[in-house]
Amino acid sequence: MFGFSTKLRYFLCVQPTDMRNGFDGLAGIVRNFLIKDPISGDVFVFLNKTRTHIKLLYWDGDGFALYYKRLEKGRYKTHSAVNGLSQELKREELMMLLEGLSFDKMRKSKRFKMG
Questions:
Q1: What range does the domain containing 45 cover?
Q2: What pLDDT does 82 receive?
Q3: CA 25 to CA 21: how far, in whole Å?
Q4: How many domains does one find in the chain?
Q5: For the chain, how are helix, strand and coil distributed in percent, rounded to 5?
Q6: In this model, does residue 110 exceed pLDDT 80?
Q7: Which of 26, 40, 80, 93 is most solvent-facing, going by the fewest CB within 10 Å?
Q8: SS3 24
Q9: Cα separation of 76 and 33, whole Å?
Q10: What is the pLDDT of residues 20-54, one digit of tens each?
Q11: CA distance 48 to 63
């Protein structure tokens, strides 16, 4: 079962991805383009050029799991200015992305954090 835990790390590929890619194609993008390990236990997020399709790739210990969603109306909203090949997302940001909320206009209040 695929769950969204605060213990996982989430990485959004900033370049549009061909959604015809399956497990092996997306794992290749993670390895060769994002320069990350696809079996690290991190979740990798991919959007198509029009931002109407999203795929999440995750290694769950003995195989890849894939979450795939196509919007019937609207587009996924991402940060407007991103540098690099991937952007690390917090669990809450991924939830906002999946729910269609905009990152840019929301601010989080200060909270205590140990360490």
A1: 10-99
A2: 65
A3: 5
A4: 1
A5: 15, 25, 60
A6: no
A7: 80
A8: helix
A9: 22
A10: 999 999 999 999 999 999 999 999 999 999 999 99
A11: 24
